[in-house]
Amino acid sequence: MAENDQQAAGGSNENANQNQPQFALQRIYVKDLSFESPNAPDVFQQQWKPSVNMDLNTSHKKVSDTQYEVVLSITITAKVEDKVAYLVEIQQAGVFLLNGFPEQQVPPMLGAYCPNLLFPYARETIDNVVNKGSFPALMLAPVNFDAIFAQAVKRKQQEQQEQQGTEAPEGQQTH
């Protein structure tokens, strides 16, 4: 009887391991990269006190039943006074395997966790291309993708509530 219990326990452990969520980074690549220095060489004559602006966006698409492409898009604009010193645009992408995750865990994985893994690669590429453009190193600060994702979810929920509020028949109150 004890042997049967052990075999049953071993079988259930094996099944439990098969049902565990699987995550794997399968490939990281630069999907698109652009560098412009429209005011060179004049910009090199000015004192280097740039204002740097960073725009950030993420997107994803399903590649197969278990694979997703996640794209982190970053645009850096450095200006000296009112002139653009340089503009860098990168789409850092990755293919990720997500298998066995509950449906509610997939969006935060694709919208926060995966971009967090891609960011160091994008940051390094941006720094390298800025240096190749003969500008001082640009070390971007870390980004809190969890907070950005949470804000996006909250904004989307508010928009849905507003839409539902405007769709209510006259005379009815919405919550």
Explain what this protein looks like in three dimensions:
It is built from three helices and four strands. A four-stranded antiparallel beta sheet has the order 1-4-3-2. It has helices at 2-18, 106-132, 145-167, and strands spanning 22-36, 51-62, 67-80, 83-99. It has a single domain (24-152), classed as Bacterial Protein-export protein SecB (Roll).
Topology:
Elements: H1 2-18, E1 22-36, E2 51-62, E3 67-80, E4 83-99, H2 106-132, H3 145-167
Antiparallel strand pairs: 1-4, 2-3, 3-4
Helix pairs in contact: 2-3
Key terms for this structure?
single chain; 175 residues; Bacterial Protein-export protein SecB; globular; alpha+beta; four-stranded antiparallel sheet
Q: Could you name the CATH homologous superfamily?
A: SecB-like
Total strands: 4
Helix content: 25-40%
Tell me, what's the shape?
globular
For this structure, the quaternary state is single chain
Head-to-tail CA distance between termini: 60 Å
Summing up helix and strand content along with how strands pair, one would put the structural category as alpha+beta
Please identify, by name, the CATH architecture: Roll
Strand proportion: 25-35%
Order of helices and strands: HEEEEHH
Radius of gyration: 24 Å
